[in-house]
Amino acid sequence: MNYVIGIFLAASLMLAGCADDAEQESDSQENASQTKTKEEDKEQRDSKKNDEQPTKATDNPQAPDTSSLTEVGDYHKDEDGSATLEARSTYNETTQIGDVELTISDVKVLNYSPSMDLIDFFHPYSDNETNFNYVKLHVTVENTSDEPVDFAPVSVLETNAGEKKDFEGDFYLEELYGVYEGNEERSGQMGFVLNDTEIEKLSTITVRTSDVFDEDKTSQAKAKTIEIPIEGS
C-alpha cells in the first residue's frame, strides 16, 4: 500500500513540475509576443510619421514660398523675390539621437533673387546678395523624454564640394535650435546659402547634428552624421 502511495505522490509531483514548466514557457512566449508587438507598433508609428510628415511650413519672411516647386526648373515669384528649383532630394527619414528624433525632408536646392527690401539682410550670408543658390530643408525635432534637452538639428552642413556651413549660416531663423522641453516637438525650415558649390556638380549634402545635452550641458548622446543624396543637379 505504501508503495502505491509513493508512486502516486511521485507522479503527482512530476505532473505539477510539468505544469509549472508549461506555465513558465507560456509566460515566456507571451512576454516575447508582447515585446515583438511593441517593436512592431513603434516601427509602424515611425513609418506613419515619415509618411505623414508635413513638408509645407509657414511662409518665411526671408524667402519665397517654395512649396509649389516640385520639379527641377519650376519657378515661383512673390513679394519676397523669385526662386527656381535647381535640384532636390526625395530623402525623408527619421534619425534617433538619444532621446531626440530628427526627421529631415523636403530638401531643395534653389536659385534665389531676393526682393529689393531683403538684399541688405543677405549681405552677411552671400557673396552676391542679389542672386545666389541655397539649400533648404524641412526638419522636425521631437524630444521623446520627459526632461529638457539642448539640441541643434544642423550643427554643420557640408556639400560634396567641401563647402561648410555652421548653424549660424541658417537664414530662415525659425528657432529650431536650443532647449526642447520634455516631449516638445518643433517643425520648420532651414536655409543655407551656397557660395562655393557648383550646383551642376552637387551630388550630396551631409548634415551633422549636435550632441544631445541635458540641462547641465552634459552630453547625453553623441552627434549623428546624415548623408542626403541630391538629384537633378
Structural descriptors:
14 strands, DUF4352 domain-containing protein, six-stranded antiparallel β-sheet, about 230 residues, Immunoglobulin-like, 1 helix, alpha+beta, globular, disordered N terminus
What is the fold-level CATH name, i.e. the topology of the largest domain? Immunoglobulin-like
CATH architect. name of the largest domain = Sandwich
The class by helix and strand makeup works out as: alpha+beta
For the biggest sheet, the summary is:
6 strands, antiparallel
Number of helices: 1
Task: Report the portion of residues in β strands.
Answer: 35-45%
Shape: globular
Q: Tell me the Rg in angstroms.
A: 27 Å
Assembly type of the chains comes to single chain
CATH class value of the largest domain: Mainly Beta
Tell me, rounded to a whole number, the average pLDDT: 84
Count of β-strands: 14
What count of domains describes the coordinates?
2
Q: Tell me roughly what share of residues is in helical segments.
A: 10-25%
Distance between the termini: 94 Å
User: Runs with pLDDT <50, length 5+?
Assistant: 1-19, 45-56
Order of helices and strands: HEEEEEEEEEEEEEE
